[in-house]
Design brief:
The protein is an alpha/beta fold. Helix content is 46%, strand content 21%. It has two domains: 2-114 and 306-321, Nucleotidyltransferase, domain 5 (2-Layer Sandwich); 130-301, 2-Layer Sandwich (Nucleotidyltransferase, domain 5), CATH 3.30.420.150. It is an enzyme of class 3 (hydrolase).
Length: 323
Amino acid sequence: MTRVAAVDCGTNSIRLLISDIHEDGKIKDIVRTMEIVRLGQGVDAHGEFAPEALERTRAALAGYVQQMKFEQVTRVRMVATSATRDASNQREFFDMTAELLGQIQPGARAEVISGEEEAMLSFSGAVSDLPADRAPFCVIDLGGGSTEFIVGEADGSILGMHSAQMGCVRITERMMPSDPPSETEIEIAEDFVEERMQEVERIVPVDKAVTFVGCAGTFTTLSAIAQGLERYDADSIHGSELRFDGLRVLTRSLMLEPAEMRALNPVIHPGRADVIGGGAVAVEGIINMIERNSEARSFFISEKDILDGIIAGLAEDVQAEAE
């Protein structure tokens, strides 16, 4: 048995998954956790990481490394996505990750991955528990700075993908800075999302998809709210279905609420309360795009995503080395 770890550092959060890889190739999850660090704070406006954002991220990653040591992890892969691709001072970030991750596996450091690789890893994780007869799937990974759209088959073959430069943090900082946002700010954000959706329609064969899968924090939080959960429960959220008509009511309500009001809901992480309105605008625009191109009228929500894709790749490496 080999114990491995995956770390995903995005615009808004940093997440950890520790798993066991058994000799027969089976994977068992040991730890899954997340912290909001807002690494992408101000990157869209200034083009570089803020010192305080780097420090929050360093502190969170240092905690993860201590957890990996406790769990006796021997192999780790960390990926960095949208915010890191955009920051001019990314070297400082990478040096910090090398110093910390090297304590687990010599030479390990965060990797900047392309939107395309991010999409493929997210697709692999998100569809792993879905029945093959619901394919083709369109996986939508809505992050802080970008949103990945991937259409593919149950066997993992990809029919098309695109990384759209929109996410809950980017939309909030750029177009919805007021709290609560004004109707004008919301309209500007909606227009921005619609432009991104037109790009998706040109690039990705959305019309070939039968099942639409939403993953990452905005989608999973919307599921928790829609179900009326009193606490965030990943088991209840994973595999849940959100119908578009009811979801539109929920997203509109979140857009108009002040962050202080959103934060009172126990399933909304305090670090997500100020940006989930931007995420709601993105979801509403995605719904409109799907309805133009498909008969589908709901999302299936997956708690599995890029972390699970990374772990699956590490499992393949472990198996190959054992042969």
